[in-house]
Amino acid sequence: MFVIPTAYKSKLPKGLSWPLGAEAISAGLADAPHATALSLWFTVDVTRPASAFQRLLQDALPYTILVAEYRPASRAGYSGSTSMVESGWYEAKWRLDVSPVPRALRAAAGAALRETGLPAITEWLRSSGQEGWGLRRQRAELVFAPATGTITPQVKEGA
């Protein structure tokens, strides 16, 4: 089974957990187009400042737990060095950012991702075949509501 490579993984503060790991996310997106082009970023930087994120958690308010993003290729311009070009800095990028949840909600968030969230990301990835889609930055967010344990997908074109 193919596992989406993890490019970055933050150390988690006490009381937080990742809703799903790389293997579960990869399995949920196994039949999605561009799955092999994705990279995973597990990051705590959901909301800045950190106090705003803590307030969201305390008040059990909805927040984004997964972001899928496509960035089209760009030109190097005058400031782009040869090494940046050779390292792929300006190439098109597919990325998944995963945010933590309170440890007590890990099972609910993971189940919601499996049932609703990852299928929505798969559909978003399938929509990439539409004419002109790849010319602009694209973004899909999965918003988790801790009070109900549900996920709401939000798609943003040209974000």
Structure overview:
The chain is an alpha/beta fold and 159 residues long. Helix content is 26%, strand content 28%. The strands form two sheets. The protein has a six-stranded mixed β-sheet, covered by helices on one side. A two-stranded antiparallel sheet has the order 2-6. The longest helix is centred in the C-terminal third of the chain and has 21 residues, at 106-126. The model has no long low-confidence stretch (mean pLDDT 87).
Features:
4 helices; globular; alpha/beta; six-stranded mixed beta sheet; 8 strands; 159 residues
Number of domains: 1
| Low-confidence sequence ranges | none
What is the share of helical residues?
25-40%
Shape: globular
Largest sheet: 6 strands, mixed
Query: Structural class, judged by helices and strands?
Result: alpha/beta
Percentage of residues in strands: 25-35%
Radius of gyration: 16 Å
Short overview:
The protein is α/β, with parallel strands linked by helices and 159 residues long.
Secondary-structure blueprint:
Layout: E1 6-9, E2 16-17, H1 22-28, E3 38-42, H2 50-58, E4 63-71, H3 82-86, E5 93-98, E6 101-102, H4 106-126, E7 138-145, E8 150-157
Parallel strand pairs: 1-3, 3-5
Antiparallel strand pairs: 2-6, 4-5, 4-7, 7-8
